[in-house]
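Retro notes
What went well: the complex prediction finally ran end to end.
Inputs used:
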Amino acid sequence: MTDTKKTQIALDVKGLKKTYHSGTKALRGVDLQIKSGQFFGLLGPNGAGKSTLIHTITGLSMPTKGSAKVFGSDVVDDYKAARMYVGLSPQDINLDWFLTVEQTLDFHGGYYGMRKKERQKRIDELLKIFSLTDKKDSRGMFLSGGMKRRMVIARALMHRPEFLILDEPTAGVDVELRRELWEYVRKINEQGTTILLTTHYIEEAEALCDQIALIDNGKILNQGTAAQLRKIYKAKTLEDVYLKATGKKGEA
Amino acid sequence: MNNVQWVGFYTLLRRECHRFLSIPRQTVGGPLLETFLYISVFGAALGSRISEIDGVSYVVFIIPGLLLMSMIINCYANNSSSLAQQKMLRSIDDQLASPVSNYSLLAAYTLGGFLRASLIVVIAFITASLMVKLPMAHAWIFVLGLVLSGLFFASLGVLAGLIGQTNEQISSYQTFILQPLIFLGGVFYSTNLLPEPFKTLTHFDPIFYMINTVRYGMIGSSDVNPYWSLLSIAAVTVAIIIVNARLFKRGYKLRT
């Protein structure tokens, strides 16, 4: 880990390109800045490049060109420092079927260097917050869909990340969990955690995010507050903005 | 390695050990029973009809090969299935997105299978010692032969798990390549007893050298020079570790 000085910019992406081995150009030169403490929304249709961008930031994908820095640490050259800042709740549930809820959180904490005592304390906190205490000894494969989603989000928060990435966290989630989740995420955002959210629920993005970027075809189309975007696109709602910007109808 | 890396590596290794220790009947009990049955059937039943080989009873002759076979299969099977399963479930993403280094990840996956196999081999050795009186001509060659061969196949298991796309593909490597090489490498016989060209052909089987090295360590006789064999096993083990390290660094079939 190099001794990179922590910046006030949580995410600084410059000219990021990603071409997969298949030849698919998923990112075609993304430029994006997220300030520390922001609640940032990333909106775009399926296949726009949202998940690829997130994978590149978190090290699940290697960039073809350009750079991405998390609090000043490059995600490739200084990946150990960069990843310490990031917590990822992925779009697809990727729990280990054979680990219990408690073990999943415990191992995750260990990967981030947390000591046993610290891990246990944090696990107890998260189990309580996400109403998983009764399920702590259940294996991942036996949890309901909603429980699995809670689990994935709790895991992302285990090491107290300063930059939390939520990739469509409310897809297929009931109203109760959605409300609880946003309440909690808002709270940690107020406490200083930077949030990057991708969602298909545009009203969620409008209600929660200070800044919103629109992405399509691997490029950022525009960025601003919901009000600024409405003004730019001369639209009444953010949904209209989205449809005008991406040229899509009915898909959000 | 700093604090985060040590704790991270230890956690990865703990996770790999937890994987096989949480289902001990399948991962430890099964292979142990298999080794016990081989010793009983081939050694006690069949061995009573076979005269001494290289100055030892048949059962003692086959035990080093059986221990090595157990080491090889368990190292390979554990690591290939662990990595492949986590790749398929994508639960490996939790590790890949963490600050743990690529080399720590590789080391933990490699050592997971190695530790499982070592546990089985130690118990099998103790069990065999209770059944028959085992000699130990060169203990350090016996141990080093097992350790190096184990590390080689643990690394090969990691490589297979990395390359393999399906469980069927990974188990077919074991069934159609590994098992024949083990059996034809001389676990149950001395290749000196084979007619030509089979005797010469056996010398192209890398496992033949491993078996003979471990056997030399225990009974003091071998079909090949055990020191050259040890050196060769060490060389191929280092080579495969380097290959795996480069693949992990590139994120080959792990990161898109």
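What we learned: The radius of gyration of chain B is 19 Å.
What to try next: split runs per interface for comparison.
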